[in-house]
Amino acid sequence: MGYKLSLKFTFILLLISNCVFSQDQKYQMQQLSGFNQDDNTKNKRLNTKESLIKTYSSKPIYENATFPLKYDIEINIDDLYNLDIKQDYFFSKLYISAYLDYDSLVIGSDQKLYNTLPKNNFILKKQLGDESYFSGWVYQGYLDDSLYNKYSYASEVENNFHHVWDLKNYPFDRQFLKIKLIASEDSSMVILKPSENLPSSFNNTISSLKKGYFIKGVSFSESYINSPFDFVDNKGNFRKKVFSVLTLNVEVNRSGSWLFVKLFLGSFLSFFISLIVFMIPTREFESKISLSIGAIFGAIGNRYFVDSAMSGVQVLTKADIINNIILLLIVFNIVIVTLQKTKKYNIPYLENNDNAIYLSSLIFILSIFLVLIF
What we know:
The N and C termini lie far apart (about 140 Å). The protein has two domains: about 65-255, Acetylcholine Binding Protein, Chain: A, CATH 2.70.170.10; about 255-374, Up-down Bundle (Methane Monooxygenase Hydroxylase, Chain G, domain 1). About 40% of the residues lie in helices and about 30% in strands. The chain has seven helices and 14 strands. The strands form three sheets. Strands 2, 3, 7, 8, 9, 11 and 12 form a seven-stranded mixed β-sheet that branches. A four-stranded antiparallel β-sheet has the order 6-10-14-13, with no helix packed on it. A three-stranded mixed β-sheet has the order 1-4-5, with no helix packed on it. It has about 375 residues and is an alpha+beta fold. A hairpin with a 5-residue loop joins strand 4 (about 105) and strand 5.
């Protein structure tokens, strides 16, 4: 029994010695070959760091730009609504594109780096509202075709835009809705121009525009505004900054013929009643005066109707002029009726009712015609 235990103990000692020898031999081989795992890890880190240094130390090549930067602008009107005479704004959905000869970063003549992104060089003049939306400028890259051959940016805008109504020709007025882009850099650095190859347009099937209005066309106008900000140009001259302004004018007309009838039918009927007075015999003087007074009240009531449709308007419009002319002609007819009755003043030509009708009608037609064409 003791013999067997001693054999087992001897076998275990031999096994342990063999494992220790194998590990020691492996370590010696690593030392002879110069291999060290920690050193290998360090070498890998050093190689990675050197590669990163090489990557970031290499300078990107930027294109040299000629200033001012010229942005070609294209604006397409997709929708337009909330155009009301009682409001000083309108709502529109736009697609705006900007085209430039250079990529997003360029070098100027002073060897400085300049950012050409639209958001850094011009802004859209707008009024923020609850339904406002601006997608931001989306970079579309270089568009290599016969129409573009430029770097392109695009954005979608839904917003309110301020409008000052010009109503002196109402109801035959034309409104020019203005959408403005204003440069945020001096005109020696940035200029905004309409795109010649890609003219702006509008959606011909706009259904949101109020009935009675229609878009006749769009056009651009270029201008400059002086700012209170100081600026030193490339020649060292000190002056105030001047900003480039590009305005899209949306011409909106009215369907004026039916509106004309709607606004002035009451006044025209009142004038016609004042002419009927001359068909009544002169001896029926009281009947003539009663009809004439009724015509005056009819014209005044129609004027009130027109004024209520244009509440808040502080200018003299063509609608006001026409109503005033009709009121004056009705008073003129009453004066003729009175002259025909009295013997103190006698105008032979107006003693004849037919002559009075012809004269009053001729003045009416000429007056309305002159108001319409001027």
